[in-house]
Specification:
The chain is mainly beta. The chain contains no helices and 11 strands. About 0% of the residues lie in helices and about 55% in strands.
């Protein structure tokens, strides 16, 4: 099975920037979508940004205009550029690759181990 490894998290002050990377053990862009999720303590895991196999990106309302998702097929890497960070962005960020298995909606998800992002006020 493909393995995903995130990196690039850390501690930054409000208004700062970070760039997260997700490197796959093999090509992940044949999946139906690849995405970044995040989970803060006591909260549900939420979708931050995704990009389809056709290259169409979408973003959560909370990060529109601040975050950019991109990919580098030569290195099997998914990126998340995060600008103008605020404390509400503090969470563990996870890379995800998803494939739709059938018309009934069954899914196959591959997750990375997560990388911590902490934004101080």
């Amino acid at each position: 099975q493909v393995q995903l490894v995130e990196s690039g998290g850390g501690l930054v002050r409000a208004g700062g920037s970070l760039r997260l990377s997700c490197t796959a053990s093999r090509n992940i862009f044949n999946f139906d979508s690849v995405a970044w999720y995040r989970q803060a303590p006591g909260k549900q895991r939420e979708l931050v940004a995704s990009i389809t196999d056709r290259g169409n990106p979408n973003y959560a309302d909370s990060v529109k205009g601040r975050f950019t998702i991109s990919r580098d097929a030569t290195t099997n890497t998914l990126w998340l550029q995060m600008n103008r960070l605020n404390p509400e962005d503090t969470a563990v960020y996870y890379c995800n690759a998803r494939k739709v298995l059938n018309v009934e909606g069954a899914l196959a998800d591959v997750w990375g181990q997560g990388t911590q992002v902490t934004v101080s006020s």
